[in-house]
Amino acid sequence: MLSDEKRNRFLQLLKESTKDEWVWMSGYLSALTQPSLGGSSVDVSFTPPVSIDSGNDPLHGNLKTQPIQCSVVYGTETGNSKKLGTELVKKLKELGVSAKLKSTDTYKAKDLKEEEYLFVIVSTHGDGEPPQAAKPFIQILADSKDSLSKVKFAVLGLGDTSYPLFCQTGEDVDSMLSKLGAERIQTLGKCDVDFDLVAKPWMSELISKLNAHSKTATTQSATQTSQAAKPTSGGKVVYEGSVITNIVLNDTGASKSTRHIEIKTTVPIDYQPGDSAGFLAYNRDEEVNRILSLLKTDRETRVTYKGETWMAYDLFRKKVSVRFLPDRVIQKYASLVGKEIPSGKTDLDVLLTLHTSENKLELQTLVDILEPIVPRYYSIASSPSAHGEDEVHLTVAEVEIETFTGIKTGFCSGYLSELKEGEVVPFFIQRNNSFRLPSPDTDIIMIGPGTGVAPFRSFLFEREQNSGNGRNWLFFGERNFVSDFYYQTELLELMDTGVLHRLNAAFSRDTKQKVYVQDRMGENAAELLKWIENGAIIYLCGSKDPMSKDVDRKLIEILTERTFDTGKDASDYLKELEEMGRYIKDVY
Ligand code: NAP
């Protein structure tokens, strides 16, 4: 403990210091206490200050609740900037800070002012030209009206001294960020063709500058995980995330709509590639009001459901299912109102309108036959290593369901599709321990038509971060090439950078005769067999029936080539692969 006098001086020093100075002090004290520095005898414990303004309080201010966030943005033509970016991200993660690798061509303008530490690695081509992929990012900087006074940055330029405008793009980015008010924490690094000579020491210097800060971040991360632990009744941790992106992946003219949704949390999400996110969607406000009005019931009326007392509005909004009622519920309703109702999916408001009761239908009696909303699961399309532990991405097809009264959007896919940026959405993680990446040196074959591509986006980005000798092969299928090639840019880039070794796409509605993923598999049977014989793991994700069954059949057909001589039955061989965990499915 400090004496009163020392404590007052210490508090005064904290008051007068900036957040960065606290970081430096924290790192300094932490280093002093390491036995190797002979500091084990130094007493650094102190009672938390209570009189400091909350914004500056090391225990309750920003420092405590937000781990360091770094973005490494690369703009590349030949892949060198990306290689260095990947290396830097790895080093940052080893420090315990949160680091994301982003490409200049997919960088989002709205992220710029939110950056905490922004490190840009960009090459220059020809006469001082940026690489094609860096142009969108440079445009964002040129168009930005935001003050970046909260952003700290450093730029590493790649170039060739034999050209007059050596590392011009690096210089441009460095000065644009500075003009926007961002704080340069390291001078521009300028690499010649043999880029490692400058890049390595530049990164080491950067890492040592961040080192002190990272120590604080490590302790924050531990605290924050415990803050996230809000168990549901089922014992799962419920996260509350804000929607940061909700876009349609299809292009104009598409005959369907599939969304890419990104949700960000303030705490780390405990998940791995292959896991799903579970959502309990709410009923629409207007639908709930319609039901209450048809029942002539006030929002505040109390009603009991499974032993708990609810306000009628909340119960219909959050707890009971009122859309696409199953036949068992419809038939219970039919006996309540004493009418015959044909089988088929329908909604509660439709039942209440078309099949009214002769006698007053008691709210409690109706509620007793309703079933609770159950969670819907979506494969996570992001990788914690690549996109950060505080984000999950989803690939959600807006399902269309035929009802008595016409086609309606699916309950949960409709709910997720309508989420606006900034809206808060609760979710939990559903583990899928059998659907996991193997060691980085094992080949994988991924078959993912439609939304089935989601976990494979996660796999590929994860493998990009933790690369080994394992090769990656993706079969993707959708309706039309022009409008439905989800994640096309990312996938092609992953091919360019050697992460994705083979990509076969099948577009079913571009030709008279439908072409499906299994047709592409058949065309590549010989190579597929080689991969399988080499120990590749086969993954299948997407719709169960008929897709997964047809893919099974195709695999058996392909394997027959292999088992023909041995007399072994190919379907037994496929079963064996399944039992050995070499054919893994996540189908719905
Ligand atoms: P999809 O309907 O599975 O279609 C994707 C591609 O697969 C299309 O080109 C389709 O062609 C083709 N296809 C159809 N039958 C096939 C077969 N037998 N073999 C191989 N390919 C076949 O795409 P989706 O949008 O991902 O929908 C999947 C279903 O999963 C939806 O009904 C959705 O409700 C459900 N689901 C989705 C999620 C999610 O969004 N993450 C989660 C749970 C459940 P054609 O249509 O031209 O025949």
UniProtKB/TrEMBL annotation:
It is an enzyme of class 1 (oxidoreductase). It catalyses: hydrogen sulfide + 3 NADP(+) + 3 H2O = sulfite + 3 NADPH + 4 H(+). The keyword Aminoacyl-tRNA synthetase does not apply. Residues 70-207 form the Flavodoxin-like domain. The keyword Cell membrane does not apply. Keywords: Amino-acid biosynthesis, Cysteine biosynthesis, FAD, Flavoprotein, FMN, NADP, Oxidoreductase. Its cofactor is FAD; FMN. One of its GO terms (molecular function) is flavin adenine dinucleotide binding. GO terms for cellular component: cytosol. Its EC number is 1.8.1.2. Residues 236-438 form the FAD-binding FR-type domain. It holds the Pfam family NAD_binding_1. PROSITE patterns: FAD_FR, FLAVODOXIN_LIKE. GO terms for biological process: cysteine biosynthetic process. This is assimilatory sulfite reductase (NADPH). It comes from Leptospira vanthielii serovar Holland str. Waz Holland = ATCC 700522. The lineage of its organism: Bacteria, Pseudomonadati, Spirochaetota, Spirochaetia, Leptospirales.
